[in-house]
Amino acid sequence: MQFDIIPNPAALSDEARAAHMVDPGFGRVFTDHMVTIRWTAAGGWHEAQVRARAPFQLDPASAVLHYAQEIFEGLKAYRAEDGGVTMFRPEQNARRFNESAQRMAMPELPEDVFVQACEELIRIDEKWVPGGEGSLYIRPFMFANEVFLGVKPAAEFIFCVIACPVGAYFKGGAKPISIWVSDHYNRAGPGGTGAAKCGGNYAASLVAQAEASGHGCDQVVFLDSSEHKWVEELGGMNLFFLFADGSAVTPPLGGTILPGITRNSILQLLNADGVTVKERPYSIDEWRADAQSGTLTEVFACGTAAVLAAVGQVKSTAGDFTIGNGGTGFRTEALRTRLTAIQRGQAPGPEGWVHRVNL
Hints:
Blueprint: E1 4-5, H1 14-20, E2 33-40, E3 44-52, H2 63-67, E4 70-72, E5 75-79, E6 85-88, H3 90-103, H4 111-124, E7 135-144, E8 156-166, E9 177-182, H5 199-214, E10 219-223, E11 231-234, E12 238-243, E13 248-250, H6 261-272, E14 277-279, H7 284-293, E15 296-303, E16 307-315, E17 321-322, H8 330-343, E18 354-356
Parallel strand pairs: 1-3, 9-10, 9-16, 13-14
Antiparallel strand pairs: 2-3, 2-8, 4-7, 5-6, 5-7, 6-18, 7-8, 10-11, 12-13, 12-15, 15-16, 16-17
Helix pairs in contact: 3-4
């Protein structure tokens, strides 16, 4: 697709940008530009632009404001050791984006255009890609902007990509996190939107996350909506359980869990190492019993933003328990080190995982 490039005349100076990147946190500091592409039922995808990052002007009757027709993705770009820039498995994000679009009755964006849009933003804002341990978090999203209050799939959409330099997702960096077991809030149910990356799933999780924070926890973990028994995922990350016999378990995909790209990458790495990984239902009662017996030695959450985060403590209305000694286990640490090295091009990984951006 041909993009019109309109440089931001008010782009930050090198000095101002450097000051913003000293300690950017996560999702607070943004680059100078954004990418937008419009879609209409009559004209398809058109008007592709790279332009100054700026607010959207939306009519109060825009469909997204009333019926939440919106999806998004999250991926990262890294500064390579030779000064270039890479992305990690962006085609997987493009594929999942379209799977979300199908579920939300939205138009699919060609996968090559999705990747191209991310590359266009990186090229114009290349100086915003941090070196060292930092990365550029890229947020593609799409929303319905048709002005109409009837309940139906919208006929007009905007696709957009923005980006922000980021540090660690959790305060305190790589220290183990604590999680709260939600026993009365659900993230998703069979036939719902649990496998789609849509804003509504995250909005529904916020009250449970606030409850977790009230109990001094970093994250909330959701159980299944039918029996309130089976562990599913955190508010924004998948889970893995590592056992003393060397095996591993992760909850199975089945429409209620987001098919994480980090999750898929870890599965591939573990399988390549000959580790027995079972994608099977795992109950909260099993979790508690296995942790208390020592059968379960490590647990970690994974996702694009945090990569891997060890789970040290679990709290619930039924009582609290600790995983191992409450610290980061050596297998979790080794997996995190290996995956981040592959993502940054510092270690070899499966073919096609590292996508070089042509600057």
